[in-house]
Write a structure and sequence with these properties.
single chain; 214 residues; alpha+beta; Chitinase A, domain 3; 5-stranded antiparallel beta sheet; two-stranded antiparallel sheet; 5 helices; peptidylprolyl isomerase; peptidyl-prolyl cis-trans isomerase activity; isomerase; EC 5.2.1.8
Length: 214
């Protein structure tokens, strides 16, 4: 009994002495990705990647020359049809815009667009903006930050947007046409009913005027 008690006491003493060392080792190897890879190498030889879950591409967007990718933040998730689910979709959007980290005027009132109708893939929309609305659903709103290489580049645009400007668009997806009839209706609405009637009258007059001359 005495011998068993001595052995048990020695074992408990060893565990107590080893526990602080083990805790220190775990804390040390949690500190950096390099140490983690040294302690726990993978079978494939690839290093483990330490991911910062708090990082947010939209909030960490920096208006510098190194920023080459857009960043998005959904304000409201829409419903129904989705941008990008089909090729060459006719969309209706509206948006406001402003500069990001610029000494110029914060808001670009000239670019506040109450309605814009365009077909995806036809390059009628700013590349970064069209990329940024991918995945949106009808009725949704989203903020899209666009770097110069996907915006207006290194030249002045219409005397309003300076070279190398970083822009932020607050976009609402109003509609996605789902049939040729809907496409026609959206285009007519965008162009204006009065303009369509006027253009039709002019066309008919020019087409029928030779008959009247006879």
């Amino acid at each position: 009994m005495i011998k068993s008690a001595l052995i048990l006491q020695l074992l408990l003493s060893g565990v107590a002495a080893f526990a602080p060392m083990m805790s220190t080792s775990i804390q040390r190897y949690q500190s950096t990705g390099t140490e983690m890879n040294q302690m726990f190498p993978t079978s494939s030889g690839l290093e483990l990647e330490v991911v910062d879950e708090i990082s947010n591409p939209f909030d960490s967007y920096t208006p510098t020359d190194d920023q080459k990718e857009i960043a998005i933040k959904d304000i409201k998730i829409g419903s129904g049809y989705t941008v990008g689910s089909e090729d060459a979709q006719l969309l209706q959007i509206k948006f406001t815009s402003k500069f990001v980290g610029s000494k110029f005027t914060a808001n670009i009132k000239e670019f506040d667009v109450p309605s814009m109708v365009f077909k995806t893939g036809e390059q009628r929309c700013l590349p970064g903006l069209e990329e940024g609305i991918q995945g949106m659903k009808i009725g949704g709103t989203r903020s899209v930050r666009v770097p110069p290489n996907k915006g207006y580049g290194d030249s002045w645009y219409r005397g309003v947007v300076p070279p190398n400007s970083h822009l932020e668009f607050n976009v609402e997806l109003v509609n996605i046409a789902q049939s040729p009839v809907e496409e026609f209706q959206m285009k007519v609405k965008q162009f204006g009913v009065e303009r369509v009637i006027g253009a039709t009258v002019c066309f008919l007059y020019l087409a029928l005027s030779p008959l009247f001359d006879q």
